[in-house]
Prior knowledge:
The protein has 641 residues and is α+β, with helices and mostly antiparallel strands.
Amino acid sequence: MKIHFILLCSLFSVFFQTLQGKDLNLLTGAFKLEHLKANIGNDKSWVPYPSYSDRVAWNKLTAPFRDRIIKKGNEALAYQWQVVKATDYLEYERSGNRSIMEKPLNENCTALTNLLLAELTEGQGRYVDQILNGSWQLTEMATWSLSAHLGAFQSSKRSLPQERTAVVDLMAGDIGSLLSWIHYFFRDTFNQINPAISIRLKQQIQLRIIQPYLDRNDMWWQAFELKEGQLVNNWNPWCNFNVLTALLLVEDNPDIQLAGIYKTMSSVDRFINYVKTDGACEEGPSYWGHAAGKLYDYLKILALATKGKITIFDQPIIRDMGEYIAQSYIGGDKWVVNFADASAKSASDPLLIYRYGRDVNSSEMMQFARYMERLGDRSLNFKPTRDIFRVFEDLRCYPQLEDITAALPHNNFKWYPETQFIYLKKAPFFFAAKGGFNNESHNHNDVGNFILYQDQQPLFIDAGVGTYTKKTFSADRYSIWTMQSAYHNVPAINGTDQSFGKEYKAENVVFMPEQNRFQLDIGKAYPKSANITYWKRSYTLSQKGLDIQDEFKIIDPKQANIIHFLVAREPKIGNGVIILKNVGATLYFDPAQFTASFDVIPQEDSRLNQVWGKELYRIKLTAKNINPTDKYSFTIRQESL
Length: 641
């Protein structure tokens, strides 16, 4: 792999030609190529973990989990490495099933991770041959990428790996990063067996990760060739982190390493520029660990490799992105605010949250991490995955968490003015709502949607998303019920649901903290065919409950409006009242204006029924009169059981 000066110049010109205007560019704006060159080294002395031969240090580092690590390693000694067949890749095209090829690959990576940790812990060589087998097997695969992702990066647009086309997706990056650490720790050991092993590992990481990253600017997550309306989501920091890891641990050509690292900095700048300055995660708490959390990993390893000389942990947006995870926590059975594709239950990572909070100097995050850690068996927070950098960092910070006082955020509201999220707390209620637009990352058509929890239990909800299939990220996405506004807490206006697109958005969005009121106009979230002049909705939260006010104007309406409420408990309909069974909550409406009914929505999808159980319920309040203008009022109150 050779790189010439002229290639470097042309490469960097691509990076910077669009770095203009109001973009933050926190990395490349503050740190130039010369700065990186002066502070990056090839000697790996920045790695904060013991060498494989340092038995004293590894014994100390892994002591709290030694028995568990060795047990998992022993189980993997007899593991039979699985082959991902051509038909496994093709199955994604044939049926939309992606798990058939992902499952064996995931299991291979899990076994390899367990073997790696066990050998670092024990240090007697018992696991080396199996580590070699697992690593070698990965290098023999046609691709490290997933069938669901290949079509977006190959000219064939097919799910079968294309010859001479290296694709860096989430999985390929994870494997490249894992193998980079294996190469780092066991290169000398492998060389004693046969030098061809280390040579092959290095070459495959370069061919599959480093070189395609340098050669290509068209992988959408890099954000170098953004199209109108294109999103920059968690893929960006996640993939860039993995590429950076490979560059730091494997690449020994200083010119290639320098070009690659600075390119990742330019790419990650585009992610930070895309994120709203209020720090909210459009994708929701379930994706925080992959979005803000992966950005943190990227910034952390970059800071380590430059001995703290290149760091932006002092920037407010980085801190705000971190604190979002604490603010979005509701309580109870780990319920969280879950707009878009996020799950209503989030398995948070206390050790990651603690580390992030420590580096951005956020006591809120560190105290929240301690709170989440104490909810269960503390030792279970150490959960080794193929994301081996996080595993190593967990081992390093685990003892530190004991000194932190557990606490939840104390604020009664959190307003994200640019993302247009509002969270309100008024015991016993937790309320959240959104404005925004209908082309957000992992988008649902849900402008104006709200959720309401009482005593940390769900009442009015957002269902989230089911198991990902081919349809989930295709032109047929909005044929899935969970994506449609008809299954969110927003109205169907003049017989019309909300539409997908950036132009379908909230207007006149205002939060009034002194009144605990959030109001917006959702009329522009619907197509022009609905003839909506405006639909003003307001939410006001008090200790009594939630008040919802709608006021609208429609030109020549033809169909009755339907007000939807998605609820977690079976409703019982009375005259102007709807009681949610077994939770002590009642929805009041005007029976002169509406006819009430509800649908039962069976939850057959495993991802959804693990959260909600067998059924959800959609309340429908159908207007009795078709009026061009009117006002509606709804109240939700706590009642004695």
